[in-house]
Amino acid sequence: RWLFDRAVCTLYAFCGVLFGLCSLASLTVLSTVCCLKVCYPAYGKCWDAFSPSHAAVLLLCVWVYALTFATAPLAEWGSYGPEPYGTACCITWETSSREATLYILALFVFCYLLPCLLILASYSLILWTVWVSRRAVQQH
């Protein structure tokens, strides 16, 4: 069972969601930047070859994105609570309220489906570009 009070449960769940979303958002941004650098080399000329300030802006966007979805249950859009086995805390998945259902749907679409599709598309485009380049080099 969960050994601590509700406040610690909420903090534990908040941290888990925040850092999990930061991780997936960071991987999404990295794959997108790699795709742009490999597949569209002119991109680097437009952005000063990916400067530290560019990286800082992207990092800030990742944290704001993750904080937006992680703080939503604290603002009563969704909720945090004990997991079904009661040994840890996370998002309350089994809920009947309309707002919580919309939060879970938004979380699925914007924090799982969209990032996964962007990562898949980015690496697919990188592989396609490398394959086309390899064929072009072999023909010469």
What this model shows, in words?
With about 140 residues, the protein is mainly alpha-helical. It has a single domain, classed as Up-down Bundle (Rhopdopsin 7-helix transmembrane proteins). It is built from 4 helices and 2 strands; from the N terminus they run αααββα. It has helices at about 5-40, 40-45, 50-70, 100-140; strands at about 80, 90. Helix 1 runs antiparallel to helix 3 (about 50-70) and helix 1 (about 5-40) runs parallel beside helix 4 (about 100-140). GO terms for molecular function: G protein-coupled receptor activity. It holds the Pfam family 7tm_1. This is OPN5 protein.
Identify the notable features of this structure and list them briefly.
mainly alpha, two-stranded antiparallel sheet, 140 residues, 72% helix, Rhopdopsin 7-helix transmembrane proteins, 4 helices
